[in-house]
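Design request, tokens follow.
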């Protein structure tokens, strides 16, 4: 951190900070203490501008990252309903409430978290049967959802695809799952999480 300084022939104390884009900002203060206090505040504000969203990839689970993704991307897609169903498996795995979309009278969508509903017996039995047929896939998805983003690797994506094949899911379903995760990671890198390394 820079320190306050005096300019020859000029009264007071100067303080200067440099922004990440190369711009400099200088202020003049009557005392060294005031210049020093401003330096600390200005530097803290500059540093805060460049903090990764959600604390960065080492501090956020995949499930939590996908909550953010759903609010930024899924809600605006034509196939939002099916995609949200897929995302909710990861989100539940992270111990978070699943998401749902509410549509107002103007047709605008709003993302909300929701409590799990008790399904009628017939629907619950059908869901449980489907889950049991894909037990290994959903168990792996739950584990991935609870894992920190920084710890997810390309090998995890390969394992997910392989497990889905073993559970007899179609190639189309597998491709959609991997494409969804790839897009989520790419957008996280580009816009709001900035992981140093993620699966390709």
């Amino acid at each position: 951190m820079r320190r306050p300084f005096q300019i020859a022939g000029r009264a007071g104390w100067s303080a200067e900070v440099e922004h990440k884009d190369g711009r400099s900002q200088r202020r003049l203060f009557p005392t060294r203490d005031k210049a020093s206090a401003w330096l600390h505040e200005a530097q803290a504000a500059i540093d805060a501008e460049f903090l990764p969203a959600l604390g960065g990839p080492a501090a956020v689970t995949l499930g939590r990252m996908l909550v953010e993704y759903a609010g930024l991307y899924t809600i605006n897609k034509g196939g939002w309903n099916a995609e949200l169903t897929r995302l909710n498996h990861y989100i539940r795995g992270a111990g978070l409430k699943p998401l749902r979309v509410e549509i107002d009278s103007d047709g605008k969508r709003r993302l909300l978290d929701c409590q799990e509903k008790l399904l009628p017996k017939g629907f619950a039995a059908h869901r449980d049967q489907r889950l049991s047929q894909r037990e290994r896939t959903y168990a792996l998805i739950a584990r991935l959802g609870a894992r920190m983003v920084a710890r997810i690797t390309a090998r995890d994506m390969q394992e997910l695809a392989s497990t889905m094949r073993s559970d007899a899911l179609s190639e189309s379903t597998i491709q959609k799952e991997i494409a969804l995760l790839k897009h989520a990671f790419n957008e996280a890198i580009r816009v709001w999480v900035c992981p140093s390394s993620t699966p390709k």
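Comment from the thread starter after seeing the answer: thanks! The longest strand covers residues 13-18.
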